[in-house]
Amino acid sequence: MKPPMYVRALGPAEQAGLEAGLRSSDAFTLRRSQILLASNRKQRPKVIAQNLGCATQTVRNAIHAFEEKGVDCLKQESSRPKTVQAQFDQAKCEALRATLHQSPRIYGKKTSVWTLALAAEVCFEQGLTESLVSIETIRQALLRLGVGWQRAKHWITSPDPDYLKKKNDVTPSLRWPSARDGLSAIRMRCGGVA
């Protein structure tokens, strides 16, 4: 069986620092001070955890941190990773922009509208990213390019390659009357005499 874990013997400055931590308004500092002073009184981590309503591992982490850093362990550190690597460098951002200027149908998708999730999926499939990234990563990459992402609108599109030609090549008798047609066009459509 492993021997119980306690903090090392406290010096007068460390004792004063921990007691000052008991008066702190920061919950993290207060909790760490309580844990370390209880451990100094030779209470076991399991008992300290039960008394303070925290996990035993939290008590052990506080003791280890005190052994490494001393009283400096009372300051809460950021939980953010020390090194963050951007998924999109400038070249990949430009490739993302070029991808989004094409239809998703080119990449085998059934929709003609880009969404952030769809862009993340296509970036992974095309090898722009090593793993599937979040929609926030895509949005941030677009912001670095100066592109604002708004909710996509569903425009009428068709997979037919001649769709635009057919759409614009409507015969005059089938299109709606416009202001330049005048009243004669309306009368002809209604069966009246012009």
Automatic annotation (TrEMBL):
Listed InterPro entries: Homeodomain-like_sf
Protein name according to UniProt: Winged helix-turn helix domain-containing protein
UniProt organism field: Dictyobacter kobayashii
